[in-house]
Each structure stands twice: as C-alpha cells, then as structure tokens.
Amino acid sequence: MKEEAIKNAKTFDELLNIKYGKIGSSTRNEYEVKANYFVISEMLKEARKEAHITQEQLAERIGTKKSYISRLENGKADIQVSTLYKIFETGLGRKIRLTLI
C-alpha cells in the first residue's frame, strides 16, 4: 500500500508526507533535522573546495582539528552557530546569513 502511494506521489512534499509523515510528526522532524545537517555539510565542503584549502588548513585557520572538520563535512557532528560563523567567515572568508522561519 505504501509502495503504491510512493509510486503515485506527484510532488516531493507528497513523497515526504508518505515516507516520513506530516510536518510536525516526530519522524518528519527527525528527517528534517538530518536533511538540514546534510545541506550544511555539503555547503561547507563545497565552500572549502572553492577556497582551494584542505580540511587541515581550514582547521588551522579556526583553531580546531582536521577530524572535527571531517565530521562536520560528513554530517557526523553537531555545530554551534558561532562555530558555523567562524568557519565560513574566518576560515573561508565568506559571509553567512541565517533566516529563521
């Protein structure tokens, strides 16, 4: 039944509702958190590569370890907003703007 609904989904939101539940459900909330970590990790990885620096060089610039940068880029570590700013603004010379919705 669920497989049939997935096949018939017409939008991405419909697919997410079928697979993870409606927005606000615990399963959907967990999915959204993981999806956001993935987006942040990919943005970090891409910005670092565009800056032509290694994980080790980035770590040195912000006073942390390469292993932490690696964990962030692989979505395996939580990040504080202050650290996010430090990485992008100090380490990568990029501006960051957060939007709360």
Structure description:
By secondary structure, the protein is mainly alpha-helical. The protein has one domain: Orthogonal Bundle (434 Repressor (Amino-terminal Domain)), CATH 1.10.260. The protein contains 6 helices and no strands. The two termini are 34 Å apart. The mean pLDDT is 92.
Q: Could you provide a short overview of the structure?
A:
The protein is built from 6 helices and no strands. With 101 residues, the chain is mostly helical. It starts with a helix and ends in a 10-residue tail after the last helix.
Write the topology of this structure.
Blueprint: H1 2-8, H2 12-20, H3 26-50, H4 55-62, H5 66-73, H6 81-91
Q: Tally the beta strands.
A: 0
CATH architecture: Orthogonal Bundle
**Rg calc:** 17 Å
Pick out the low-confidence regions: none
Count of the domains: 1
How far apart, in Å, are the first and last alpha carbons?
A: 34 Å
What is the 3D shape?
Answer: elongated
In CATH's first tier, which class applies? Mainly Alpha
Profile the largest sheet. none
Structural key phrases:
mainly alpha; 434 Repressor (Amino-terminal Domain); 101 residues
